[in-house]
Design brief:
The protein is of the alpha/beta class. It has 20 helices and five strands.
Amino acid sequence: MKKLLLLFILTFSLYAKAQDVKVRFYDVRTLDDYQKVLLQTIQDEKMMFIVFYQDGDAFYQMQKDNIFANAELAAAYAKTNPMAVSITSEMGSRLAESIGVDSFPSFYYFNNEEVLLVVKEGYQSVSNLIEALKKAQSINTNYSKLTDKYGDGTLTQAEWRALLETYALNNDFVQTQSLALEFFNSQPKAELLKPENAELVVKYGIDLESAYPELIIKNKASLPSSFDYTAFYSSTYGYNFDRAEVNKDTVLLEKIVTVLIPNRPKDEADTKELVFETRKVFSSETRLFNVWEKAAIERAASLGDDSTKAEFIFEEAFEIADNFNTEDAQETARKLAKESYTLREDYRYKMLEGYMAYLMKDYSEALELVKLAETKTDNANNIRKANSLQKMITKELEKENKSE
């Protein structure tokens, strides 16, 4: 009887233990918690499996669905140290921000050197998690080999792609782009147009100061049907315009308007108008108003009669004068107003030119310009404005004469 009882207790104990098998997470709330798990991971020669979660997200549903109680999953993840990191904790928010977590839940797989190997987002099934772990383990096994082969210059194309995939998870876009350009530069252009490589060229070969955007543009018809040219154009435009703006690079700006914009996806927009607006936005952000001046005159040249051209140029001059209070802006507005007047003699054009001269303290010239403007109108209100401005200018001239 005792033997039977002992056998029952042992059997029940083993059954209960088997039923209790599950993936158990370290609750990481502080940097100290994280460092302890990292140290344990190094000692155990395991990988880190980190879930970033917030209240009520799919991670809770996965627990309700007993995803982590699956015996096969638990056995596989025994080779990891799982951590659950709440985004509401100070540690969680800082760590998530540092590695760019922006979706919850997100599942991150790291090796014990904190190299990020795989990222999964949203609800995951048992099979999804097992597959992700296998991929992370495979990458972890091969990554050091890939870095060694990179150092030796012996990477195959497939190995280059694998290296870039992991490198991109651990470095920012510019750093990854730099590595990708090494790959591109090592290959014949015909090889880069193959579907498996073209995807990388589309993503990282967007710098107009390299040969690769034009390679894509010239060969877009031969690229696979899955190739999204609209997305390529958008990312290339945004990337290069941001660089041109930050560096005040007018050479790069010209590449955008001469190489990229004319080869944009088909739309109803006017190419000349897009070129003008691009230069105008660049100018307003960089305060390089000579770019705006050139753009306005060039755009006006493609419009209708002289009256239409004059009015367009004047409106741009007025916008600059109305929104920017610097000497460069005033000088540009003055030049554009003068250009308008050469196309059509109009009171408003000459008044704006005269007012800009006044703001620039070119009082003698300003007085002559405003006097000329007055002769170009019969409107009493306009005449009063011209007289008022003349009085203001005359006062400044008198001050100058007294100080001499």
